[in-house]
Amino acid sequence: MGLICDLFHLNRESKTAVINYIKAVVAEQQSQPLTEEQRDNLSYQYWDNEEPEEPYMAYEEGMFHPVQLGDQLGNGKYIIVNKLGDGPFSTVWLAHSTKTGKKVAMKICASKSESSSTGNEMRISRMLRDDSSHPGHRVIGYYNDIFLHHGPNGTHECLVSERTRATIAESKFRGCRIGSPIRPRRTVARAGANYGPYL
Question: What is the pTM of this model?
Fold first, then answer.
């Protein structure tokens, strides 16, 4: 703060010299890649396990796609509206479908190499959708749209579904606060037992 206050007392040439010096220092620091030790130190300083956001290091090549509100994905079919959550292998966004005019949930998976065995959601989803013989087929939600997005960090599987309500974990948390009735718990347990093998 002192440096900024001192700038107001300098003449125009001096201010320009100081500003150019600061720009040069910042540019020099930005041009040098971080060492592993520097990355670890930054990770330790700026990422807290209790923080709800994913670490910034997850936005490197081969990892998450950097998304901004207003981004258009799927050849302009979806406009990103808000962030819904994240996990170790994906981020989930609320998007506006320009085709239907409705809000949808979009899961953007971490990038993967061709040899990677992770990120098989597209294949698994299509396999489940195509197996209509099992009774679980009628109760499992499917993706309305599946596409690949090519971004600066690689190629990402994007899976679009209807917005859902609370997860089972959230429902349990909310229910426990007011004394959750046993009947909904039994219904969920029965559905899991009946339709779980389908998955």
Answer: 0.58
Distance (Å, whole) CA 165 – CA 36: 41
143 confidence band (pLDDT: 50, 70, 90): confident
Residues 6+ apart with CB under 8 A from 65: 91, 108, 111, 149, 151, 152, 153, 154, 156
* The pLDDT of residue 20: 66
One domain for residues 190 and 119: no
Region 35-56 average pLDDT: 60
- The enclosing H or E element of 148 equals strand 145-151
Domain-embedded: residue 64: yes
Is the separation of the CB atoms in 63 and 54 below 8 Å? Answer: no
Q: Same domain, yes or no, for 126 and 66?
A: yes
CA atoms within 13 A on the CB side of 149: 29
